[in-house]
Amino acid sequence: MTTRTNKAAEFLDLHRPGDPLLLPNPWDQGSARVLASLGFRALATTSSGYAASLGRPDGSVSRDEALAHAAVIVAATDLPVSADLENCFADDPGGVARTMALAVQAGLAGASVEDYTGDDDEPIYPVELAAERVAAAAQAARSGGRLVLTARAENYLHGRQDLADTITRLQAYQAAGADVLYAPGLTRLADIRQVIQADDRPVNVLAIAGAPSVRELAEAGVSRVSVGGAFAFAAYGALAEAAIELRDKGDYGYLAGTATGRQAIQGAAAIQGAVLRPVSARRPNGDGDLHRRGLRAHSRLRLDPGFQRVVRGRRGLAKRRPGRVDIRAPVHWHRRQRHLRAPVARGRTPHVLRCRSPRGRRQLAVDKHALQHREPLRGAAHRDGGLLVG
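-> structure tokens emitted (390 positions)
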């Protein structure tokens, strides 16, 4: 399994001047999987997009909510994930360090800290305090793990169009230990070039209206391009337009765009080993009698937070009396091989478990990495003559 340190190193290695990492920002598990299926190499959470998914404005999410959401995005795919942690939900450096330590525990490959205070009267921290906050975040990001720390200078998002001060801040954040520098809101290519030339760290640019194209940013030496909450708001915009059309016109023009969305979800589901079909009471070929409860009535296998004990104790598993099954990894049935097998990523060795079914003992091969994500999939579904438990 890839360790946190290796995951962070992999993420940092993707930041290459002139060949920028395109870093999309999912807002939930489904959008994360769609983006992964489309070939993106890393993901980042979005504070505004996640807040929108809760029906709230940006800045209204708590630290616990943000970290729990980040863990969901981490579990959704095998890609490195960086978290938008706003101002780390604290003004003092100690509070920033605590948030960053929790981010390490969440399994993230990266995280950001910004110098926006949340106070419209004094929106930006003084540069000295802001640098202390970055230093505290950097120390915590390297203690007990490794995170790629992005330091954000928020001047341009809050009415302070001061390039010189922005560069001064980014230089201070670099000296404090930031791995990546980010000044969201910059749109002039000349300004972006000045930021890159003034600093020795990879630079992220936010893709917003008026910003240069990815090709132009690459030529300028940008290392990363992110979209913030734009994808989320594009999705919610499409939802609102479809709903308004139905409400006001009674038409169904919105159906024209559903094929693309359905295909995207099917592509993401195929990668994850999931099937978007109804529950089946019996395998179509009649081999076995696996009811709607899947294997729940026929095995005591539990792949939950205690799954490591199950893995180590697998030899005696088949002798246990019938009980509950809680499959926590994508699993599908192979008719001919007569065993359950979870998709196993390249280079990983599956762990073989055994359990009882109505037709006797079956073999369950699961990707340990998928289990560690502890992602519950429930029910049983069939496709092409096969049964999926998950």
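The first helix runs from residue 4 to 13.
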